[in-house]
Amino acid sequence: VQLQASGGGLVQPGGFLRLSCAAAGSVFSFSVMGWYRQAPGKERELVARVFGGDSTNYAGSVKGRFTISRDNARNTVYLQMNTLKPEDTAVYYCYASTLGGTTFWGQGTQVTVSS
Hints:
By secondary structure, this protein is an all-beta fold. 0% of the residues lie in helices and 56% in strands.
């Protein structure tokens, strides 16, 4: 299984980006899919995750600005990021976990918020 993330880039404060992450070569049904991020000098933190029943969790710092969604037919998870702030600058990693507890990771995509 390979997770391919895309959609990162450079955006001004207040702007938006949409990240996508597709799981290729998978025969699994993922119980949860989501995104972590890691800023320079900081630990990796959970940004958002979505479960099979479409319930979601968000980090407090992104709640109300970011929206996570998934397309089960395509094994793809999305992260719509609005009203971006400089502190959102980080490498964003997608992941997907099976019911059996196996977790797969994407390669990371850089998001830079700067004027």
